[in-house]
Amino acid sequence: MKTSFIELVKSRRSVRRFQEKPVERELLRQCIEAARFAPSASHVQPWRFLIVDDPDLKKVLTQKAFSGIFSATRWAAKAPILVVILAELDMITNRIGRQFTGLHYYLIDIGIAGEHFVLQARELGLGTCWIGWFSERGVRKALDIPRKYRPASMLAVGYPDVEHFSDKSRHPLEKICWFNKVR
Ligand SMILES: Cc1cc2nc3c(=O)[nH]c(=O)nc-3n(C[C@H](O)[C@H](O)[C@H](O)COP(=O)(O)O)c2cc1C
Q1: CATH number at residue 90
Q2: From ligand 1's centre to the CA of 179, what distance in Å?
Q3: DSSP state of 124
Q4: pLDDT tens digit string along 28-46?
Q5: Taking each helix axis from N to C terminus, what angle separates 25-36 and 105-123, rounded to the nearest 10 degrees?
Q6: 41 in a structural domain
């Protein structure tokens, strides 16, 4: 029976332990395909997905990205795939838009696209974890990223080690949703 959208969303949890089994590139492409259809401010589509599946390169990346204060993210070295979500910044919307509103639209866009990826991955039986705790400089160096791209986030991807279901509670609906007036 097909999983409903709400079931898919509710069953997703961050996965930090993976099987060694490699992940088929075709599945990753399907995740990117889902991300590709995300909405974005002024339709600028600022996201770029740099998928690292070469073990040697991944080693260099994890050494540089997760050292010093970022070593708490060392667990991600064992993920078969690391995805670096890059933002292309030389776009009018992000420059001018921010001057007027103070909002970093590209971060919103990347969050939406990245979560499309994550949910598609979940449907395909892959586990993921967002990674925000990394050295941007280290990522730049390891992957030789041109200046016009900013590593905005990362995702660890792989087949989950055990299908664990951490019961992380969520704020109740009444706490996060108001109609007409903030209470
Ligand atoms: C933008 C963002 C950055 C995150 N960065 C990290 C991280 O650096 N390391 C980590 O272990 N988890 C990270 N997470 C995962 C969160 O800790 C996790 O989503 C949260 O605790 C809720 O748990 P769940 O995803 O299992 O529902 C990040 C999540 C998001 C959305």
Answers
A1: 3.40.109.10
A2: 28
A3: T
A4: 999 999 999 999 999 999 9
A5: 140
A6: yes
3 falls within a domain: no
CA of 3 to the centre of ligand 1 (A): 24
Which residues line the pocket of ligand 1, CB cutoff 6 A?
13-14, 16, 73, 129-133, 153, 166, 168
Residue pLDDT tens, the chain, 183 long: 788 999 999 999 999 999 999 999 999 999 999 999 999 999 999 999 999 999 999 999 999 999 999 999 999 999 999 999 999 986 676 777 788 888 899 999 999 999 999 999 999 999 999 999 999 999 999 999 999 999 999 999 999 997 666 778 999 999 999 999 999
Q: Is residue 36 part of a domain?
A: yes
Q: What is the largest CA-CA distance in the chain?
A: 54
Range of the domain at 138: 13-162
126 belongs to a structural domain:
yes
Using the Cα atoms of residue 99, residue 131, residue 35 and residue 169 in order, give the sign of their dihedral. Answer: negative
Structural domains in the chain (count): 1
Contact 18, 111 (CB under 8 A): no
> What are 93-108's pLDDT values in tens digits?
677 778 888 889 999 9
What is the pTM for the complete model shown? 0.95
Ligand 1 centroid distance, CA of 7 (Å): 20
Place of tokens 């332990």: 17
Among 75, 85, 131, which is best to mutate for testing ligand 1, by the most ligand atoms less than 8 A from CB? 131
